[in-house]
Amino acid sequence: MAVERMAVVGAGQMGTGIAQVGARAGLEVVLADATPEQARAGVERMAAGLAKVVEKGKMAPEERSALLARVKPAAALADCAAAQLLVEAIAEDEERKRELFRRLDAILAQDAILASNTSSISITTLAACVRRPERVLGMHFMNPPPVMELLEIVRGLQTSDATHEAALELARRFGKVAVTSRDRPGFVVNRVLVPFLNEACFALEEGLASAEEIDAAVRLGLRHPMGPLALADLVGLDTLLAIAEVLHRQLGEDKYRPAPILRQYVAAGWLGRKARRGFYRYD
């Protein structure tokens, strides 16, 4: 089946970025969220971001207009019913995702692919909520989706070979490099990344060095483009905490235990860039 219609549920930064990737690949995209206002706001953010790309000379105005014409905000979840590929990109909360999957299962066509952008939650568990679990898999885009090259494909226990092959073909169409992971906590990227970011939190809490010094040491000493604490702010400290908790709970090893300072910052509402304060201030 050639995919021409795509829907994304979740109009935050990740969902909007995924919708942009689909539209740039020539797909007709519906962007949905809990309310029509949130969906429209996501499309507006996309338009504003693309305007900046045009200003920098990296996209022609005509290309921007054509791309935006392929993205429509949903008035209700039912507007996603015609999608041949639906990507879920809501908050990293297993019960919310399971409930959304059950609702989507009732409206999507039998041959539609249902993908989750989850960075840690079991695809096998999510697939068990629907009538056609063989059509479910993980499509974990990196942040920001329009820029990052990697697409992590996650096969649940039930995912069929045909669904996996379709996802690999979509990755090529999106201009991404696909890596397939087994359905294990954190998959590939976050299994490696989250302990690294968490250890930087422990180092800061212990007073090993300041946030700026920890980040500078990693950037200059390891040739990383961004320090771990700045990256944690970009990811969202609430998201980082949620993934660390999944790893700790499901793998049962102390090395995945979230740093207390990470819990404190989340409790304070200091969630990183999206809250204008995390390990750094973003005024």
Using brief descriptors, characterize the structure shown.
283 residues, alpha/beta, Rossmann fold, N-(1-d-carboxylethyl)-l-norvaline Dehydrogenase, domain 2, 8-stranded mixed beta sheet, 11 helices, 8 strands, 14% strand, globular
List the helices and strands and how they pair.
Elements: E1 5-9, H1 13-24, E2 28-32, H2 36-55, H3 61-69, E3 71-73, E4 85-88, H4 94-105, E5 113-116, H5 123-127, E6 136-141, E7 150-155, H6 161-173, E8 177-182, H7 189-205, H8 211-222, H9 228-235, H10 237-251, H11 260-268
Parallel strand pairs: 1-2, 1-4, 2-3, 4-5, 5-6, 7-8
Antiparallel strand pairs: 6-7
Helix pairs in contact: 1-2, 7-9, 7-10
What does this structure look like?
This protein has 283 residues and is an alpha/beta fold. The protein folds into 2 domains: 5-182, Rossmann fold, CATH 3.40.50; 190-273, N-(1-d-carboxylethyl)-l-norvaline Dehydrogenase, domain 2, CATH 1.10.1040. It contains 11 helices and 8 strands. The chain has helices at 13-24, 36-55, 61-69, 94-105, 123-127, 161-173, 189-205, 211-222, 228-235, 237-251, 260-268; strands spanning 5-9, 28-32, 71-73, 85-88, 113-116, 136-141, 150-155, 177-182. An 8-stranded mixed β-sheet has the order 3-2-1-4-5-6-7-8, sandwiched between helices. α7 (189-205) packs across α10 (237-251). The relative contact order is 0.10.
Radius of gyration: 19 Å
CATH-defined superfamily of the largest domain:
NAD(P)-binding Rossmann-like Domain
Morphology call? globular
Q: State the order of secondary-structure elements, H for helix, E for strand.
A: EHEHHEEHEHEEHEHHHHH
The assigned structural class equals: alpha/beta
Identify the strand order in the major beta sheet.
3-2-1-4-5-6-7-8
Instruction: Tell me which oligomeric state these chains represent.
Output: single chain
CATH fold assignment of the largest domain: Rossmann fold
For the record, the count of structural domains works out to 2
Helix content: 40-55%
Record field, number of beta strands: 8
* Portion in beta strands: 5-15%
* CATH architectural arrangement of the largest domain: 3-Layer(aba) Sandwich
Roughly what is the average pLDDT, rounded to an integer? Answer: 96
What is the CATH first-level class name of the largest domain?
Alpha Beta
- Main sheet, how many strands, which sense, barrel? 8 strands, mixed
Poorly predicted runs of 5 or more residues: none
**Measured distance between first and last alpha carbons:** 47 Å
